[in-house]
Amino acid sequence: MPVKPRASIGRLAVQFGLAFALAMGVAGGIAFLAARDQLMEEADDALAHESSKLILSGEPNDSASMAQRILERRDNKIISSRGHLLYAPDGRLLIGGFDVKPLPDGYAEAFYRDGTRKWHRGRALTQHLSDGGRLIIVEHSEVGENMREMLVPGILALVIAASITGLAAAWAFTTQIAQRLDRTVKAADAIAQGDLSHRIPTTGLDGIFATQASSLNHMLDRMEQMVRSQRQFASHLAHDLRTPLTRLRGLLHPDQIHEGAAGHEVLDKAERECRSIIAIFDALLRLSEIEAGRRPTAMTPLALDEIITDVAETMEPVIADAGSQLALSAMPSATVLADAGLVQQLLVNLLDNVALHTPAGTRASLALAVTQDEATITVADNGPGIALGERDRVVRPYERGQGARRQGSGLGLAIAQAIMRFHNGALELVDNRPGLTVRLRFPIAG
Amino acid sequence: MVAMRVLVVEDDLAIAGQICHGLMARGYATDRAHSAQAAFDACHRTQFDAIVLDRMLPDTPGIALLGRLRAESHRPAVLMLSALGSVQDRIDGLEAGADDYLTKPFDMAELSARLVAICRRGGRNESAGEDGGDIAVGRLRLDAASHCASLGEEAIELNRKQFSLLAYLMRNADRVVTRAMLLENVWGYSFDPATNIVESNLSRLRTRLAGLGCDPIETKRGEGYTLRSDQCR
What we know:
The complex is a heterodimer.
Chain A: H1 11-54, H2 63-75, E1 82-87, E2 93-95, E3 99-100, E4 106-113, E5 120-128, E6 134-140, H3 142-192, H4 207-252, H5 260-292, E7 299-303, H6 304-321, E8 325-328, E9 335-339, H7 340-357, E10 363-370, E11 374-381, H8 391-394, H9 412-422, E12 426-431, E13 436-443
Chain B: E1 5-9, H1 13-25, E2 29-33, H2 36-45, E3 50-54, H3 62-70, E4 77-82, H4 87-95, E5 100-103, H5 108-123, E6 135-137, E7 140-143, E8 148-151, E9 154-157, H6 160-171, H7 179-187, H8 197-210, E10 217-220, E11 224-227
Parallel strand pairs in B: 1-2, 1-3, 3-4, 4-5
Antiparallel strand pairs in B: 6-7, 7-8, 8-9, 10-11
Helix pairs in contact in B: 2-3, 6-7, 6-8
């Protein structure tokens, strides 16, 4: 398998960098517009102030007196940053010194030039005088003009700088993420190659990365466990089949007598071996059928007390034939949502175990207890029981209790366990001192 | 008595041969078909009493053939045979119109007993007691209301399982019923118990019937059980 190149986040870094640059460009533009508005307001204030010094209430405001006032203010050198244009009522220029592009009345943007070829930009206030003359005051703002000239290169510089820092930051960020995810990738590669023991190292991880790694590790633990039990299951199955197949082959061997009464007996034995092989397969299919949970439609409200009584009636003669006894306690009524066929099999399996794996003289009992959210069936006996350390093992497929006869499919308790899981319930093996108690806990739907 | 005529629809030659051989040994007349189309044509030529139908055929699935046969006027009883043995597969087969369903690998005795049972069902020559009424075989009577079995003046009460067991055997009097048929029809179990539930319950029933002074249930080794009407006098 080819070794993958170190993981990178690819386009993500570029996308983040560009988004950052765009955001910076927009922010720069907004800042510029705000500053320009501020400067324009200041220029207009200055124009209003100048106008109030020239157009005086209670004094004649005709062209001639205006010309005189302007010249006075010029002499006093009060007005350095602004210029005045005064037109007589007949359009003659009375006071000038620079060109200006045509202007509307009131405050406006003005373009002017003083002798040079270059047009400047400023603010202007155009007013009509009492005799029909016209006064234009132009305010020159060096800052405003400079700002305007810097606008395009400024924003460009801002965007470029933002792009670079954005890309760098995004790259650094994504590299950090990639390094952390790289551990997951390496673990996945190792697992794909069959090494299920590999885990994602969690040292130095925090936040979502630590959570993700530990959740993946947990999943791997479960998977490893499942694969291990699957392997065990397969090898146990092969072993379990080997025994009856070996006996069968022996019975069919030419050395065996296959004629007459003795031959009949041999064929009967062979037939029994075949049956036990078929029984193993049937139980196996049944187990996988239950575990796959393919029949959710079979779930109906089921009266546990009735089904227990029914199974007890069937199994009492079986246990009696094995030389033991089965007693039934008084049953409270309890209804759970269940698959009747599976619950029958569950109870029959457990009572089969009593008949097959306890000595004659054993006393077994069936009981039912109900609480608000749980119904518990108890199958108890005073037989040899199962040692504490064995209890987890015997519910696994093909694991038999110590001293259990090699009878049955070896799947009885595994099937019982699967049936309880199917019902979202639990199967518990408890010490009955002496003997074994099996508790079957069914949830009661609220 | 005219021999029952059975069509065996099975594409596996060895299995088809075994079935035909086994059925002929039991006195049936048999025909073979190796595909659904051949089976359909054969049904047009000959009237069969029953069909042993493999579920998986090379041309059409057995279930589809069932659908085509159902549209015909005379439909033989159908025993479906399959390697698919889950509860759901069984339900699918029966819902498609099969009269019974048998999972491979099977036993000839089992197949034969089930064929007899479904042909009888199809013929409806015995309707009494089919749905819970009183049943009588000879002098042996079974009362559905009181769960009492009686022979002449003597009567005994049976528990529910013994009652159902005896009822099934009486309805199939003089015919072989197998352990699997009893588990399916008396107990309604779809699994194979590890212990011999049938044997233990039957021996209880026989002990109870001995109290009436009759022992009509006979064990046929390797085949099943029969309730003999000539023992109910």
